[in-house]
Amino acid sequence: MASRAQPPPPLPPHLRARLHAAPLFSPRAPRCRGGRSRLLSALPSPSPSPPSRSQRVSTARLEREPGPAPSAEQQQPRRDPALAAEIARLSATRARLRAARTLEDKLRALDGEPRVAAFFGEESSRGFLGALESREVLLLKCLVAAGQEHVLGDELDWSGGIHHEHHHRNGVGGGSALREALYSLAGLVGKWSSEGVVGGETGSGEMELLRSLLKFLGDIEEFYDCIGGIIGYQIMVLELLSTSKDRMHRPSKDKFVDFHVPDGLNLLEDTEYASQAALWGIEGLTELGEIYPIGGAGDRLGLVDSDTGESLPAALLPYCGRSLLEGLIRDLQAREFLHFKIFGNQCITPVAIMTSSVKNNHEHITSICERLDWFGRGQENFRLFEQPLVPIVNAEDGKWLISKSLFPVGKPGGHGAIWKLACDRGIFQWFRHRGRKGATVRQVSNVVAATDLTLMALAGIGLRYNKKLGFASCERRPGATEGVNILIEKQNPDGLWSYGITCIEYTEFEKYGIPEPTVITGSSQISYPANTNIMYVDLQAVEEVGSRKSASCLPGMVLNLKKAVSYVDHLGFECSAAGGRLECTMQNIADNFTNTYNYRCSKGIESM
């Protein structure tokens, strides 16, 4: 671990102000005076002695400490039999598709699926599928093989004139006769409006919906190729759904898992070092990029256009007379101006922005940039890349929710998609061509992150000490809907011990036994620090993770089922259903950066 060998040089007066910031967490941190860790490191002191229980502030075990081996029955997850059978069926289908070398081989493998054959019929090439390209046929057959044939409905001739049974909407069978009559009436009205007659040729409206569905499915198949595309997505959904139904069972491949409260550098306590770190960050701006994940739906804000009633993304929320996106760029320009005033040269930081199609997010972001002439920075210094939407699933059986036939309900799949997506879209290569080594990652929701030295100090320490990853964190208030940073200690199946910093989202607190902070005698009890959605990343390190052909490039996958999903059905009614979507968590890329030892560390692991 690096140590500070000499005192920092004199600082400009504007960097000597009292700091109001948060602790910084980063693997392999430098140590400060007296041996105290300035940044939280994932590298514990090498001490093979038994751990001291007094050092553990708060823990949450996923498995018991090594003891009598549990029986085989106790080790097995208590899964829902129907979900377990479906997972097994889909896993076999995925294996056959992975073994197929060509597109034709994949289609033949899907044709062998009873579900596909029953839906499309043996002569499906004579029906509507005959007018589609082979790649498009593959997507539709994957959809049916995944058990989501209700998405396609009955409006189009899928089976070449062979009648097949009606598939209930949103995967829920039954329903009242009145409801079915309304569905039928809505179908007739739709045909009248698009064709003028009933029973005519396929209308342009249906074709437009089909094209939209094919793009939706194509995005899922491409983005989730590391886990098996559409089939793999559904397997992951069902596995997490099965786990959520058995709250007592927490599957873990590790022999022992324990959580500790991390102890990082507090910028308020050591303002001299914080100012020095901020100066490093300003000096290193020429080696830094900026990454803004702003493709989220922002449903909690309830932001709408007062004139049109259109739902708007969070990036358009007015703050101090400007949109949140404009505020991010303004903060960046202030740091660049400070670099110019101190070091005498100008620099323009490249900015990568992850958007999405929800609430016309991508169009709104592009419109702001164009209207403001790309903030005077030049369009060549921006890269916008769109995050794919993922299907919302029913919380009971994992069926995809639909607004109407050919129109599944979709939302972005979490900010954790940014690492793989940036790799797929060449964002890291773009940064590299501009001579960038690291990047500051900042979500649009943290509007005060640049009002102190936090951003500059985080980036400065990351650059100077060649960190792969760093977090900015703060004290967590009771009831806050934010995740927490923890130090995780676990013994792997091979007997080795690993240590690292990770993030647990607030939706997973109950699952992992994370307690809410409580107030005792006017001061907050010691608890896990809150995630602030501010990170430093080494671009080469995160590109290596994002380029992997396994689930590890999609960090922290969760199925959030805690809130009801609202959507509009094809009758125009506002509906609400228990459901969720597969989400990746951005901060959990830290799970790929751990340190491993052949003994259990003990002394000072919270402040290593």
UniProtKB/TrEMBL annotation:
Biased composition, class Pro residues, residue ranges: 1-13
Region annotation (Disordered) ranges: 1-81
Transmembrane segments: none
Origin: domain of life: Eukaryota
Single biological process term from Gene Ontology: UDP-N-acetylglucosamine biosynthetic process
GO molecular function: UDP-N-acetylglucosamine diphosphorylase activity
PANTHER family xref list: UDP- GLUCOSE PYROPHOSPHORYLASE, UTP--GLUCOSE-1-PHOSPHATE URIDYLYLTRANSFERASE 3, CHLOROPLASTIC
Protein name: UGP3
